Fold:
Amino acid sequence: MKQKRNNFMFCLLVIFMITSCLRTTDEKCTSILTSEDQIQDSIPSGLKMDNGIYSIWIKLKGKVDHDIQFNEFSLPSGVVDTLIRNRDQYSPTFHYTISNEEGGNVELDICVGFSYSPL
Structure:
């Protein structure tokens, strides 16, 4: 019984150490003002590493005239103010595609924060 408790405590300690070691970059932002039917771009993290990046958060704020697609997310027309958290990401650069098939203006501020391990 004591061995099971020790194993459990060890597992909790390891989980705590892993999660407490993650750091988040300052947000990296870009502004989009377009009426093109599709735009592809990227936002670099500024990190000088290829490994150790685990997730990102994405903040979208602005206004769109018609429904658009932001990567795999559908955004309805009107005012956009959303936060997407804990998206798996293993690259130091976030790539995105905006599909604006119905035309109209897309006015978006896109901010991304990268969670990484400094180890």
Q: What stands out?
A: The first strand starts at residue 23 and ends at 24.
